[in-house]
Amino acid sequence: MRPLLSSSRLAVPILLSVLLLGATAARAEVIGKAQTGSGRFAVAAANVSAVRPNRLIVVVRASPRQRVKGSYIVICSSGQRTESKTGSFSGRTTLSRTMLMPFGSPDGCTASAAAQLDGGSGRIVVRLSAR
Hints:
The chain is mainly beta. The chain has one helix spanning about 5-20, and strands at about 30, 35-40, 45-50, 55-65, 65-80, 80-90, 95-100, 110-115, 120-130. Mean pLDDT is about 85; it is low at about 5-30.
């Protein structure tokens, strides 16, 4: 059976969720709502928005522990400047990756990430945080 979403097709729902999110969160540590999926080739995605973040992190957990793959998009703005950065990741859970921001010291950023079980079945959780 083929995976439900390939890495390249993860970018479309991520971009749409970022555009629809539009919220801003407080400084300090902001935890994006964790999203879960279950079953064979399960998929989960999450969003976070933060004011003046220093770092954006995606954490992926799976039960049972297994390989996952995913991608993210980060959109940041400062004044009238707005830029985006995309990336992908893969590895065995629990997996934590720092998402690259398009430039340093932004006024605010919104990030979305999605991950998928890479060939197995079980439960997957994606959580984002900003510091």
